[in-house]
């Protein structure tokens, strides 16, 4: 008897990858892609910067798009697809929002997430009074992997910095009590990975290479904070950098769909999550908190 048409149709997934993600050398991503194919999904992978695309001819061809890249070009093309109603993980607006550290800092604080005090300005000399009270960390507002981040501890150091050509997020420096804690989240499942702290200096940092680190348990407090970060930004696959301070944990960075390096057994859960999104079992619409927290 002929097989029913429905069972012969493979759901089609498209992974939008980063140019420098080197997903083929990332064991977690290799396992996720292979796992989805074994479940009967047709999976294609593309890097926007390595393709030639006509935006006006870009139409929805896949049942689900997985936004693994956060480059400007990838997000722009994701926006073209989003405008046509494409289904995405993570949601397009969540990816765009978390890319902007200024907006993200506001949404996290409004949701009760412990984050450092933050300021924005186009004139760094206006921060002289603040740097006299506390060291500051200056971050490109759309930075990635620590690129361009610098520590400023004196007025002289602040005065030596050229006026930024694009917005920066200025945060109160927070001293951690040990190694850096990277927290990875899949839905409501939370993984902790400890990495040796590289520290900060007054010189802008170069992009930090991704290292696995050592898996670790996270406290109930950190676990709760991590889940609430996802709720605040409408994310399901994401990571956050946490500093454990004398006054408690503080979130100093947040990003969508990280590498999950060092997170033991995360790949099967990522596969489950994407599969559930494709089947409609998970509602991955952006959280209403993206609107409510801005009020």
Overall description:
This protein has 295 residues and is α+β, with helices and mostly antiparallel strands. It has a domain at 5-98: Rossmann fold. Helix content is 29%, strand content 23%. The protein has 10 helices and 13 strands. The radius of gyration is 20 Å and the shape is globular.
The amount of helix comes to: 25-40%
**Poorly predicted runs:** 1-7, 291-295
Adjacency order of strands in the biggest sheet = 11-10-9-12-13
Identify the CATH class of one domain: Alpha Beta
**Average pLDDT, to the nearest integer?**
88
Largest sheet: 5 strands, antiparallel
- Named CATH topology of one domain: Rossmann fold
Radius of gyration from the alpha-carbon trace, in angstroms: 20 Å
Supply the helix-strand structural class.
alpha+beta
């Amino acid at each position: 008897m002929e097989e029913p048409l429905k069972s012969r149709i493979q759901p089609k997934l498209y992974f939008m990858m980063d140019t420098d993600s080197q997903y083929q050398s990332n064991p977690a991503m290799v396992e996720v892609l292979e796992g989805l194919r074994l479940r009967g999904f047709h999976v294609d992978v593309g890097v926007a910067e390595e393709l030639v695309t006509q935006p006006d001819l870009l139409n929805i061809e896949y049942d689900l798009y997985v936004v693994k890249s956060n480059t400007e070009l990838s997000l722009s093309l994701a926006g073209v697809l989003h405008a046509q109603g494409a289904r995405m993980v993570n949601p397009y607006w969540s990816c765009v929002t978390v890319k902007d550290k200024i907006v993200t800092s506001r949404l996290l604080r409004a949701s009760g997430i412990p984050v450092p005090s933050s300021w924005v300005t186009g004139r760094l000399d206006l921060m002289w009074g603040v740097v006299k009270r506390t060291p500051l960390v200056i971050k490109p507002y759309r930075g990635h992997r620590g690129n361009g981040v610098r520590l400023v501890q004196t007025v002289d150091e602040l005065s030596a910095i050229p006026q930024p050509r694009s917005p920066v997020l200025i945060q109160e420096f927070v001293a951690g009590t040990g190694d850096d804690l990277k927290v990875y989240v899949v839905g409501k499942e939370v993984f902790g990975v400890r990495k040796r702290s590289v520290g900060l200096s007054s010189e802008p940092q170069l992009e930090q290479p991704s290292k696995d680190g050592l898996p670790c348990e996270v406290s109930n407090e950190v676990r709760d904070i991590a889940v609430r970060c996802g709720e605040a930004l409408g994310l399901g696959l994401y990571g956050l950098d946490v500093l454990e301070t004398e006054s408690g944990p503080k979130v100093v960075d947040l990003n969508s769909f990280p590498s999950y390096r060092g997170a033991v057994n995360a790949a099967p859960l990522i596969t489950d999550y994407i599969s559930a999104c494709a089947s409609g079992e998970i509602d991955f619409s952006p959280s209403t908190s993206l609107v409510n927290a801005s009020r």
